[in-house]
Fold this protein.
Amino acid sequence: MPDPIFEARNISKRFGPVRALNEVSIAIGAGELHSIIGENGAGKSTLMNIFCGRLRPDTGALLIDRQPVHFSSPKQAAAAGIAIAPQEINLVPALSVAENIMLGAQIGARICGGAVIDWKATRAEAIRHLHEVDDQIDPASRVGDLSKAQQQLVQIARAAATDARILILDEPTATLTHRETARLFDYIRSFKARGHSIFYISHRLDEVKALSDRITVLRDGALAGTLDPATATREEMVTLMAGRPPSAMRQEPRRIPGDAPVVLKVTGLTRPGEFQDLSFSLRKGEILGVSGLIGSGRTEMAKCLFGLTRATAGEIEYFGQKTRFTSPLQAIQAGLIYLPEERKQEGIFPLLSIVENAAMPSMARFRGLLAMRNREMLAEVMDYIALLKTRIGSPRDAITTLSGGNQQKVIIARWLMRDAKVLIMDEPTRGIDVNAKFEIQAVLRRLTEERGLSIILISSEMEEVLDVADRILVMHEGRARGIVDAAGESQESLLKLAMT
């Protein structure tokens, strides 16, 4: 590696009794993309927040061009040339795309001896940065009207607008389409070609290997190893991250008996502009994977089954009865539950505790004559926490103290307490590390086998549906391209089916 332009030496950080980082040293050179990978809770976000001034280390030092630096705010880090595009959207919904990109960095002008914002120049600069990242987004659009993927791209453009020498990208492709991802990768290459550097965090190991100049693995807050992407294998990366090989975590293929009762049957379901003529069935104890590229109509189909939207044609049979849920409340009362892909925005109550999040839809069951039966509620929640092998501190802690994988388990516990019969899970492991992903997959298998739960699992990761599903519905542009047994299929065969 050439002389580093940025170094972190022996960085340690604690939050109370929890050791988040322990003597971590890392460096980056000019024009380098250095990927940081690890499980949720490995210390990646804590380290990046120290780099960009959001946190201060307990011990250790940061150096730029071999000179010590101390950041007490993101503004100081930005002034030193370090900017972050975080995984969580941090934009102002009511402002335009251009206003968000240049917020706090507007170009000034002097008129009649006074300082004002030169909006024409500011807008032109915003458009320049936006088009470097993606030229399909209208700079005049209100950010709140954009898709999550578009908001993520605007956030990256906003970080780039600081003229950073070092850009931190945290899960930048989690919500992007293939086109948007390819455009972002072009931007990353041009950013590096200008001599700038990138710390890249992602759970998508294939893109980590393709983009990186170096890969550093964190585990339990410590440095687990550094890999050369030219020679590293996915198995090596997973083993360093999880402390065990992926072969020890995978599920064995299985087949659901053909005479298992059908719990959900969909025939010719159509909603113009979203999906059309969808037909499939779901059996008791089965996991039906739904595969397809972003925009294939998978989420729209799930929302229609749950009663959030209405189909214009087709039939739905639920446990042998023709049914058309007209609201989510009807679906929930019948035991059909939808877990949305936007877990943090739509799945959890961030200001409430773990126990409150789990028990929220079941509160009426614990209402006493004069007060809530809190002990009974806590006991039942803890039974499900144990069943799902959820790692928590105190059940009274805020749910935001948990990793993404453990938050997802609490959401599953919530609906098991409501006697869920069918779970529709939309991208259930997005943003979750590989070990937590396998844990959730194992939980889903166990629930189908021990409780007879039936699951529709929607995922843009073909490897995931192959790992956990019994059968796979392949969708493309709103149509079903086929239903196949997961055993014996490959990512290549699924993609070929989707594109035919």
